[in-house]
Amino acid sequence: MALEGKVAVVTGAAQGLGKGFSEILLKNGAKVALLDVAEVAGKSLKESLDEQYGPDRTLFIPCDVQSQQQFKAAIQKTVETFGQLDIFCNNAGIINEVDWEKAVSVNLMGVVRGTYLALEHMNKLSGGQGGVIVNIASIAGLGPLLSVPVYTATKHGVVGFTRAMADASKESGYGIRFNLICPTFVQTDILNALQSPAILGQFSNLEDSTKKLMEQHGILDVSQVTEAFLQLVLDETKDGAALMVLSKGSQYSTFPSII
Ligand SMILES: NC(=O)C1=CN([C@@H]2O[C@H](COP(=O)(O)OP(=O)(O)OC[C@H]3O[C@@H](n4cnc5c(N)ncnc54)[C@H](O)[C@@H]3O)[C@@H](O)[C@H]2O)C=CC1
Ligand SMILES: CCCCC/C=C\C=C\C(=O)C/C=C\C/C=C\CCCC(=O)O
């Protein structure tokens, strides 16, 4: 199998896209550390994965990506248990336009934190073996989603950060590829935000416009996104790439060349 012997960390792995990314890595031979703040769902996923793959292929580690201490310890435990770190997926994300500072903290600061902590183990300049980091942005990281301006901003931030890190890695010789997944709407629990004034706050009145956008764009199955993710993990030629996953298929984003 393509990823035999490789070790991955996936954040927000207990359900939705993170669960899908973890499963496709396992199917292809990798060992996976499942990190999530949701302990009950995380433990239950680990139990069901143990039945399919055996207890030695996964770890569940409770971890809030907002906590430097928890995140650092989780990655340390992964490396101590599995011996290395090759693939890192910053997937954990939320929508919260009311507690918008939390959205920035999880979606953007969590990705920066995860990336810098992963570098400590993966960077060839500090004794690591290199590898690939895939950050989960969104189509809302490339264009505006009107009902969630702060979510949109965090995802644009993830896109900019990841592209800059790809260039920094190439220039400095980290031996790490950095790629982005930018999906349109996907059938997961995050879609429930649409019906929640407590999450959308002052933008709740835009529900109909968002529903219209959803009709135009369609809603993907998790499996459509996991295939795109696997492509970015396996294809060694992809570095600094942003793969949009749309109803009509996957397509690499182009960016204006300014610098
Ligand atoms: N579902 C969609 O329409 C799309 C989702 N995305 C992105 O995909 C990623 C995954 O989202 P979904 O699977 O759709 O949502 P989800 O809500 O089903 O799953 C998110 C997971 O992240 C975990 N999580 C939340 N806060 C956390 C924290 N502070 N620390 C650790 N784990 C935390 C949750 O417990 C949950 O297991 C997010 O970054 C989201 O922005 C991107 C484009 C479209
Ligand atoms: C009210 C928002 C909650 C409902 C949406 C829930 C989750 C969305 C997650 C995303 O990451 C958004 C996915 C796709 C956005 C689609 C279009 C954005 C418009 C971009 C453009 O066309 O320029």
Outline the structure in words:
The chain has helices spanning 16-27, 39-53, 68-82, 100-122, 149-172, 197-200, 207-217, 222-234, and strands at 7-11, 31-36, 58-62, 87-90, 131-136, 176-183, 242-246, 249-252. It is an alpha/beta fold and 259 residues long. Strands 3-2-1-4-5-6-7-8 form an 8-stranded mixed β-sheet, with helices on both faces. α3 (68-82) packs parallel to α4 and α4 (100-122) packs parallel to α5. Residues 11-12, 14-18, 36-38, 63-66, 91-94, 106, 136, 138, 183, 185-186, 188-191 line the site of 1,4-dihydronicotinamide adenine dinucleotide.
Question: What attributes characterize this protein structure?
Answer:
alpha/beta; 259 residues; 8 helices; 8 strands; eight-stranded mixed beta sheet; globular; binds 1,4-dihydronicotinamide adenine dinucleotide; binds the ligand CCCCC/C=C\C=C\C(=O)C/C=C\C/C=C\CCCC(=O)O
Which cofactors or ions or other ligands sit in this model? 1,4-dihydronicotinamide adenine dinucleotide, ligand LO7OFUQM
Question: How much helical structure, as a percent, in the residues?
Answer: 40-55%
**Mean pLDDT, as a whole number?**
97
- β-strand percent reads 15-25%
Globally, the shape reads: globular
N/C terminus separation: 40 Å
Output the radius of gyration. Answer: 17 Å
Q: Give the biggest sheet.
A: 8 strands, mixed
Helix-strand pattern, N to C?
Answer: EHEHEHEHEHEHHHEE
* Spans of at least 5 consecutive residues with low confidence: none
**Helix/strand/pairing category:** alpha/beta
Write the layout of secondary structure elements.
Elements: E1 7-11, H1 16-27, E2 31-36, H2 39-53, E3 58-62, H3 68-82, E4 87-90, H4 100-122, E5 131-136, H5 149-172, E6 176-183, H6 197-200, H7 207-217, H8 222-234, E7 242-246, E8 249-252
Parallel strand pairs: 1-2, 1-4, 2-3, 4-5, 5-6, 6-7
Antiparallel strand pairs: 7-8
